Amino acid sequence: MIAKTSIGSSFSGAIHYGAGYTVEGKEIMGKADLLVTHNVVSRDPEGIAAEMQQEASYSRCKTPVWHSSISWKPEEKPTREQMIETANRYCKKMGADPNDHQIAVYEHHDKPHQHIHVYINRVPTDGTKALETSHNYARNVRICKEITQELGFSKLEKLEEGKLRHVAVNQEEAQKVVNMAIKAALKEESETPEDMERRLKEKGIECKYKIEEGRLKYSSYSYQGVPIKGQDVGFTAKQLQARLDKNLEAKKEQSQQVKPDIEHKQKRGRGMGL
Question: What are the MobA/VirD2-like nuclease domain coordinates in residue numbering (predicted)?
Answer without folding.
Answer: 31-152
